[in-house]
Amino acid sequence: MVDADPGLFGPESVTWQMHGDPMMWIAGVRALYLQALHPRAVRGVMQNSDFRKDAWGRLMRTAGFVGTITYGTTEAAEKAGARVRRIHRLIRATDPETGESYGIDEPGLLLWVHCAEVDSYLQVERRSGFPLTAAQADRYIDEHRHSARLVGLDPADVPATTAQLAAYFESVRPRLAASPEALDVDDFLRRPPVHPLLVPARALLWRRVAALAYQSLPPYAHELYGRPVAPVHIVDRRLRTAGTVLRHIPARLRWRLPPGHIPNAMARLGPGSRPTPYKLRSGAAILDGPGRAQQ
């Protein structure tokens, strides 16, 4: 166990503790909503895949990638990153107004997708009651400059603190819009096609997940989509309620869901590597100096 590979982040990172929380699923849906507001980015997705038929696959592939780079070995994370870079190099999109053809691996587009994901994970977790200090939130963003490298970005060009992340979103806002493709994503996430037998479950469960993910978006996103939401304090109360309910589901049941990244990591590193927010409260997960992800 002593010599086992902790991976890119390791059990002493904020990422390791936070990514084991069940609210990450709602955060992932929020990221889809936010990413869709960049016309060039969402166009690359819509022109190169049948989003309506493969949206679940896309969501699961994203979850699988995040799980691999968080809890997998260094080799597995590097291979996952290489696979993403290889796919991105082959895909291009076309601007219907100008006829311009561009690669979806443009640094600006990669940076948007990265920042939308990191912001969504951090916002939903903190607002739903996951215990993070301001310093730990900064540490989380800094750790994910490493994941940015995996998809082809220079870590030096990626926000390293919450202040830098906020400044990035302020700078990119003029380029955001509720394009026809973004509205297609919104429509899909609100009413995804399912088997007739699953329609009641969609109405009972998924509708609430999608609604909460949408409500947790920043105000400018609500303005662009054109659907207002309740005041922030009410949305935060809903997020905390959802977090409380989901966190009462025993971890041993939640972590049985495929592909089993967390149980595999614990088998590799021992029971002491179990992700838990209590380590953050005690400060045990935060190093005084640079952690593995910064090396």
Describe this structure in words.
The radius of gyration is 19 Å and the shape is globular. The protein has 16 helices and two strands. It is mainly α and 295 residues long. The protein has a two-stranded antiparallel ribbon with strand order 1-2.
Q: Short description, anyone?
A:
The protein has 295 residues and is an all-alpha fold. The protein is 62% helix and 2% strand.
Topology, please?
Elements: H1 14-18, H2 24-35, H3 39-48, H4 51-71, H5 74-90, E1 92-94, E2 101-103, H6 107-127, H7 134-143, H8 145-150, H9 162-172, H10 180-190, H11 199-215, H12 219-225, H13 232-247, H14 251-254, H15 261-269, H16 278-282
Quick tags:
single chain, two-stranded antiparallel sheet, 2% strand, 2 strands, disordered C terminus, mainly alpha, 295 residues
The helix count comes to 16
Oligomer: single chain
What portion of residues is helical? 55-70%
Give the spatial strand order of the biggest sheet.
1-2
Head-to-tail CA distance between termini: 22 Å
Indicate the structural class. mainly alpha
Query: Roughly what fraction of the amino acids lie in strands?
Result: under 5%
> Quick one: overall form?
globular
How many individual β-strands? 2
Low-confidence stretches: 284-295
- The succession of helices and strands, N to C, reads HHHHHEEHHHHHHHHHHH
Average predicted local confidence, pLDDT: 89
Q: What does the largest sheet look like? A: 2 strands, antiparallel
Q: Give me the Rg, rounded.
A: 19 Å
